[in-house]
Amino acid sequence: MKVTVTGSLGNISKPLTTALVQKGHTVTVISSNPEKQKDIEALGATAAIGSLEDVNFLTSALTGADVVYCMVPPNYHTTGDDPIVYCKQIGNNYAQAIRQSGVQRVIHLSSFGADLEKGTGIILGAHYVENILREIPDVAITHMRPTYFYYNLLRYVGMIKKAGLIATNYGDDDKLILVSPLDIAAAIVEEIETPGAGRKIRYVASDELTAKEAARILGAAIGKPELKWVTITDEKMQSGLEANGVPVNIAAYTVEMFACLHSGELSKDYERNKPIALGKVKLTDFAKDFAAAFTKN
Fold it and tell me: Are residues 282 and 186 in the same domain?
Protein backbone atom coordinates (compact mmCIF):
# COMPACT_ATOMS: atom_id res chain seq x y z
CA MET A 1 0.00 0.00 0.00
CA LYS A 2 0.94 3.62 -0.43
CA VAL A 3 0.98 5.30 2.98
CA THR A 4 1.54 8.96 3.77
CA VAL A 5 2.85 9.62 7.28
CA THR A 6 2.84 12.99 9.04
CA GLY A 7 4.90 13.87 12.08
CA SER A 8 8.30 13.83 10.36
CA LEU A 9 10.63 11.46 12.28
CA GLY A 10 9.04 11.99 15.67
CA ASN A 11 8.58 9.55 18.52
CA ILE A 12 5.72 7.76 16.78
CA SER A 13 6.30 8.51 13.10
CA LYS A 14 9.87 7.18 12.95
CA PRO A 15 9.12 3.67 14.28
CA LEU A 16 5.89 3.70 12.28
CA THR A 17 7.74 4.51 9.06
CA THR A 18 10.42 1.92 9.80
CA ALA A 19 7.82 -0.81 10.39
CA LEU A 20 5.80 0.07 7.29
CA VAL A 21 8.87 0.07 5.03
CA GLN A 22 9.99 -3.27 6.46
CA LYS A 23 6.56 -4.68 5.64
CA GLY A 24 6.93 -3.63 2.02
CA HIS A 25 4.67 -0.58 1.97
CA THR A 26 5.52 2.52 -0.07
CA VAL A 27 5.84 5.33 2.45
CA THR A 28 5.94 9.11 2.06
CA VAL A 29 6.85 11.10 5.17
CA ILE A 30 5.79 14.73 5.51
CA SER A 31 8.26 16.99 7.30
CA SER A 32 8.61 20.75 7.55
CA ASN A 33 12.37 20.42 8.06
CA PRO A 34 14.47 20.03 4.86
CA GLU A 35 17.31 18.66 6.97
CA LYS A 36 15.21 15.57 7.69
CA GLN A 37 15.08 14.53 4.04
CA LYS A 38 18.25 12.42 4.12
CA ASP A 39 17.19 10.69 7.33
CA ILE A 40 13.76 9.92 5.88
CA GLU A 41 15.27 8.53 2.71
CA ALA A 42 17.71 6.45 4.77
CA LEU A 43 14.71 4.61 6.19
CA GLY A 44 13.56 3.74 2.69
CA ALA A 45 10.78 6.31 2.53
CA THR A 46 10.17 9.35 0.33
CA ALA A 47 10.33 12.80 1.91
CA ALA A 48 7.67 15.44 1.23
CA ILE A 49 9.04 18.71 2.60
CA GLY A 50 6.48 21.35 3.40
CA SER A 51 4.09 22.76 5.99
CA LEU A 52 0.79 21.38 7.25
CA GLU A 53 -0.39 24.97 7.18
CA ASP A 54 -0.11 24.91 3.37
CA VAL A 55 -3.27 23.16 2.13
CA ASN A 56 -2.05 22.94 -1.47
CA PHE A 57 1.16 21.21 -0.38
CA LEU A 58 -0.76 18.92 1.96
CA THR A 59 -3.23 17.97 -0.76
CA SER A 60 -0.39 17.12 -3.12
CA ALA A 61 1.35 15.01 -0.46
CA LEU A 62 -1.83 13.02 0.24
CA THR A 63 -2.84 12.48 -3.37
CA GLY A 64 -2.41 8.88 -4.45
CA ALA A 65 -2.13 7.49 -0.92
CA ASP A 66 -4.17 4.46 0.10
CA VAL A 67 -3.89 5.39 3.76
CA VAL A 68 -2.91 8.59 5.56
CA TYR A 69 -1.68 8.84 9.15
CA CYS A 70 -2.33 12.35 10.40
CA MET A 71 -1.29 14.03 13.62
CA VAL A 72 -1.16 17.61 14.89
CA PRO A 73 2.41 18.55 15.83
CA PRO A 74 2.76 20.43 19.14
CA ASN A 75 4.24 23.53 17.50
CA TYR A 76 2.37 25.81 19.88
CA HIS A 77 4.94 24.95 22.56
CA THR A 78 7.47 27.08 20.69
CA THR A 79 5.25 29.64 18.95
CA GLY A 80 3.10 30.57 21.93
CA ASP A 81 -0.06 30.18 19.83
CA ASP A 82 -3.28 29.06 21.44
CA PRO A 83 -3.15 25.25 21.12
CA ILE A 84 -6.89 24.86 20.61
CA VAL A 85 -6.97 27.40 17.78
CA TYR A 86 -3.90 25.79 16.24
CA CYS A 87 -5.41 22.29 16.41
CA LYS A 88 -8.58 23.51 14.74
CA GLN A 89 -6.55 25.14 11.97
CA ILE A 90 -4.53 22.00 11.23
CA GLY A 91 -7.66 19.85 11.54
CA ASN A 92 -9.45 21.96 8.94
CA ASN A 93 -6.40 21.77 6.67
CA TYR A 94 -6.41 17.98 6.94
CA ALA A 95 -10.13 17.84 6.16
CA GLN A 96 -9.75 20.02 3.09
CA ALA A 97 -6.70 18.10 1.83
CA ILE A 98 -8.38 14.72 2.41
CA ARG A 99 -11.43 15.83 0.44
CA GLN A 100 -9.39 17.27 -2.41
CA SER A 101 -6.94 14.36 -2.64
CA GLY A 102 -9.58 11.64 -2.63
CA VAL A 103 -7.99 9.66 0.23
CA GLN A 104 -10.34 6.92 1.44
CA ARG A 105 -8.63 5.72 4.65
CA VAL A 106 -7.38 7.92 7.50
CA ILE A 107 -5.65 7.06 10.78
CA HIS A 108 -5.82 10.05 13.12
CA LEU A 109 -3.68 10.45 16.23
CA SER A 110 -6.07 11.74 18.88
CA SER A 111 -5.93 11.33 22.67
CA PHE A 112 -7.75 9.78 25.56
CA GLY A 113 -10.17 12.37 26.87
CA ALA A 114 -11.05 13.47 23.33
CA ASP A 115 -14.62 12.34 24.00
CA LEU A 116 -15.06 15.23 26.44
CA GLU A 117 -16.33 18.63 25.31
CA LYS A 118 -14.72 20.69 28.07
CA GLY A 119 -12.38 20.63 31.04
CA THR A 120 -9.52 18.74 29.39
CA GLY A 121 -7.06 21.54 28.69
CA ILE A 122 -4.87 21.00 25.64
CA ILE A 123 -6.64 17.70 24.87
CA LEU A 124 -9.70 19.71 23.83
CA GLY A 125 -7.86 20.30 20.57
CA ALA A 126 -8.01 16.57 19.79
CA HIS A 127 -11.75 16.62 20.48
CA TYR A 128 -12.26 19.34 17.89
CA VAL A 129 -10.06 17.63 15.29
CA GLU A 130 -12.03 14.40 15.70
CA ASN A 131 -15.25 16.32 15.09
CA ILE A 132 -13.80 18.11 12.06
CA LEU A 133 -12.68 14.84 10.47
CA ARG A 134 -16.05 13.20 11.16
CA GLU A 135 -17.66 15.72 8.82
CA ILE A 136 -15.75 14.28 5.84
CA PRO A 137 -18.12 12.01 3.88
CA ASP A 138 -17.29 8.54 2.58
CA VAL A 139 -13.91 8.18 4.31
CA ALA A 140 -12.97 5.38 6.72
CA ILE A 141 -11.39 6.93 9.81
CA THR A 142 -9.77 5.38 12.87
CA HIS A 143 -9.19 7.77 15.75
CA MET A 144 -6.27 6.47 17.80
CA ARG A 145 -6.60 7.55 21.44
CA PRO A 146 -3.32 6.90 23.25
CA THR A 147 -3.05 7.65 26.95
CA TYR A 148 -0.31 9.39 28.96
CA PHE A 149 2.98 9.23 27.02
CA TYR A 150 5.93 7.86 28.99
CA TYR A 151 8.27 10.55 27.71
CA ASN A 152 6.14 13.26 29.33
CA LEU A 153 7.56 11.99 32.62
CA LEU A 154 10.92 13.42 31.57
CA ARG A 155 9.63 16.88 32.44
CA TYR A 156 10.05 15.91 36.10
CA VAL A 157 13.79 15.21 35.95
CA GLY A 158 14.67 18.77 36.94
CA MET A 159 12.11 18.82 39.74
CA ILE A 160 13.46 15.60 41.23
CA LYS A 161 17.00 16.95 41.13
CA LYS A 162 15.97 20.23 42.74
CA ALA A 163 13.25 19.21 45.19
CA GLY A 164 13.80 15.45 45.57
CA LEU A 165 10.21 14.60 44.65
CA ILE A 166 7.52 14.95 42.01
CA ALA A 167 4.79 17.45 42.87
CA THR A 168 1.86 18.05 40.51
CA ASN A 169 -1.90 18.62 40.76
CA TYR A 170 -2.34 14.87 40.33
CA GLY A 171 -0.34 12.14 42.06
CA ASP A 172 -0.28 9.84 45.10
CA ASP A 173 -2.98 7.18 44.48
CA ASP A 174 -4.23 8.66 41.21
CA LYS A 175 -4.24 6.08 38.43
CA LEU A 176 -1.83 6.66 35.57
CA ILE A 177 -2.54 4.94 32.26
CA LEU A 178 0.77 5.14 30.43
CA VAL A 179 1.78 4.43 26.86
CA SER A 180 4.93 4.02 24.78
CA PRO A 181 5.20 5.59 21.31
CA LEU A 182 6.48 2.20 20.14
CA ASP A 183 3.22 0.55 21.15
CA ILE A 184 1.25 3.35 19.49
CA ALA A 185 3.21 2.85 16.27
CA ALA A 186 2.57 -0.90 16.39
CA ALA A 187 -1.17 -0.31 16.85
CA ILE A 188 -1.23 2.12 13.92
CA VAL A 189 0.46 -0.48 11.70
CA GLU A 190 -2.28 -2.96 12.67
CA GLU A 191 -4.97 -0.43 11.78
CA ILE A 192 -3.32 0.39 8.44
CA GLU A 193 -3.18 -3.28 7.51
CA THR A 194 -6.77 -3.95 8.62
CA PRO A 195 -9.39 -3.20 5.95
CA GLY A 196 -11.23 -0.15 7.19
CA ALA A 197 -14.85 0.90 6.87
CA GLY A 198 -16.79 3.56 8.70
CA ARG A 199 -15.56 5.24 11.86
CA LYS A 200 -13.69 3.64 14.73
CA ILE A 201 -12.14 4.61 18.07
CA ARG A 202 -9.09 2.67 19.32
CA TYR A 203 -7.45 3.26 22.68
CA VAL A 204 -3.78 2.40 23.14
CA ALA A 205 -2.05 1.92 26.51
CA SER A 206 1.05 0.12 27.75
CA ASP A 207 0.88 0.09 31.56
CA GLU A 208 -1.48 0.99 34.40
CA LEU A 209 -0.10 2.15 37.75
CA THR A 210 -0.75 4.63 40.51
CA ALA A 211 1.45 7.70 40.69
CA LYS A 212 3.00 6.26 43.87
CA GLU A 213 3.91 3.06 42.05
CA ALA A 214 5.30 5.00 39.10
CA ALA A 215 7.45 7.07 41.45
CA ARG A 216 8.88 3.96 43.07
CA ILE A 217 9.82 2.48 39.70
CA LEU A 218 11.42 5.69 38.45
CA GLY A 219 13.08 6.26 41.81
CA ALA A 220 14.61 2.78 41.84
CA ALA A 221 16.02 3.41 38.37
CA ILE A 222 17.79 6.62 39.45
CA GLY A 223 18.98 5.44 42.84
CA LYS A 224 16.20 7.17 44.80
CA PRO A 225 13.95 4.26 45.89
CA GLU A 226 11.97 6.48 48.29
CA LEU A 227 10.94 8.95 45.57
CA LYS A 228 7.49 10.42 46.27
CA TRP A 229 4.85 11.77 43.90
CA VAL A 230 2.69 14.20 45.87
CA THR A 231 -0.44 16.10 44.93
CA ILE A 232 -0.49 19.90 45.12
CA THR A 233 -3.24 22.43 44.46
CA ASP A 234 -4.12 23.72 41.01
CA GLU A 235 -2.98 27.17 42.12
CA LYS A 236 0.48 25.93 43.13
CA MET A 237 0.77 24.01 39.89
CA GLN A 238 -0.10 27.09 37.84
CA SER A 239 2.35 29.35 39.68
CA GLY A 240 5.08 26.71 39.47
CA LEU A 241 4.71 26.34 35.71
CA GLU A 242 4.73 30.10 35.19
CA ALA A 243 7.82 30.43 37.40
CA ASN A 244 9.56 27.97 35.07
CA GLY A 245 8.79 30.05 32.00
CA VAL A 246 5.68 28.29 30.71
CA PRO A 247 3.32 30.78 28.99
CA VAL A 248 0.27 31.59 31.12
CA ASN A 249 -2.21 30.08 28.65
CA ILE A 250 -0.25 26.85 28.20
CA ALA A 251 0.15 26.56 31.98
CA ALA A 252 -3.61 27.01 32.46
CA TYR A 253 -4.41 24.35 29.87
CA THR A 254 -1.89 21.99 31.50
CA VAL A 255 -3.35 22.51 34.97
CA GLU A 256 -6.86 21.88 33.64
CA MET A 257 -5.75 18.70 31.87
CA PHE A 258 -4.02 17.35 34.97
CA ALA A 259 -7.01 18.26 37.17
CA CYS A 260 -9.18 16.20 34.81
CA LEU A 261 -6.74 13.31 35.18
CA HIS A 262 -6.82 13.71 38.99
CA SER A 263 -10.63 13.58 39.06
CA GLY A 264 -10.68 10.43 36.93
CA GLU A 265 -12.91 12.08 34.34
CA LEU A 266 -10.18 11.99 31.67
CA SER A 267 -10.05 8.20 31.61
CA LYS A 268 -13.71 7.27 32.03
CA ASP A 269 -14.32 6.45 28.36
CA TYR A 270 -11.02 4.56 28.23
CA GLU A 271 -12.19 2.39 31.13
CA ARG A 272 -15.40 1.64 29.23
CA ASN A 273 -13.56 0.81 26.01
CA LYS A 274 -10.20 -0.62 27.08
CA PRO A 275 -7.88 -2.17 24.50
CA ILE A 276 -8.01 -5.96 24.37
CA ALA A 277 -4.40 -6.08 25.55
CA LEU A 278 -1.89 -3.57 26.86
CA GLY A 279 1.24 -2.82 24.84
CA LYS A 280 4.57 -4.55 25.32
CA VAL A 281 6.62 -1.63 26.69
CA LYS A 282 6.21 -1.29 30.45
CA LEU A 283 7.23 1.54 32.77
CA THR A 284 10.12 -0.61 34.01
CA ASP A 285 11.42 -0.57 30.41
CA PHE A 286 11.02 3.20 30.05
CA ALA A 287 12.67 3.71 33.44
CA LYS A 288 16.00 2.92 31.77
CA ASP A 289 15.54 5.88 29.41
CA PHE A 290 14.43 8.01 32.35
CA ALA A 291 17.57 7.10 34.27
CA ALA A 292 19.74 7.93 31.25
CA ALA A 293 18.11 11.37 30.98
CA PHE A 294 18.45 11.91 34.72
CA THR A 295 22.15 11.14 34.59
CA LYS A 296 22.73 13.29 31.51
CA ASN A 297 20.91 16.43 32.65
Answer: no
